Amino acid sequence: SPLFVTKTKSDCKSPWGLEGLKKLCSISSHPVLAIGGINETNVEEVIQCGAQGVAVVSAIFDAPCPKTVAIQLTKRIKKYAV
After folding, report:
1. Hey, how many other C-beta atoms are within 10 angstroms of the C-beta on 16?
2. Which pTM value belongs to this model?
3. Phi-psi bin for 32: left (phi > 0), alpha (psi -120 to 50), beta?
4. What is the distance between the alpha carbons of residues 31 and 42, in angstroms, rounded to a whole number?
5. C-alpha–C-alpha distance, residues 69 and 41, integer Å
6. Which of 16, 31, 40, 47 is at a distance of 20 to 30 A from 23, taking alpha carbons?
7. If you write DSSP's letter for every residue of the chain in order, what string do you get?
8. How far is it, in rounded angstroms, from Cα 23 to Cα 51?
């Protein structure tokens, strides 16, 4: 299921939300990549919950300037790189 509500994952069950992501990251022995409704306003919270990375579609494709959004997302994620 997606992390947040998103139009690109309409056939999935309820979103996990940040609490669901935290729980999954705490019990998984594998790196967790988050997907679904992730954008510039919430990507830092997603990484802080323990996700090792994100996959985004709408945040880039719906943006007036996809390149700018991609750069901003990358900068926000890199702040938490180990």
Report:
1. 20
2. 0.89
3. beta
4. 19
5. 11
6. 40
7. --SS--GGGTTS-S--HHHHHHHHHHH-SS--EEESS--TTTHHHHHHTT-SEEE-SHHHHTSSSHHHHHHHHHHHHHTT--
8. 11
Tokens coding 55: 């996959």
Radius of gyration of the chain (CA): 12
8 within 8 A of 28, measured Cβ to Cβ? no
pLDDT tens digit sequence for 34-78: 999 999 999 999 999 999 999 999 999 999 999 999 999 999 999
What gap in Å lies between CA 79 and CA 19, rounded to an integer?
21
CA distance 63 to 66: 5
Q: 38 to each of 5, 29, 47, how far by Cα in Å?
A: 9, 23, 11
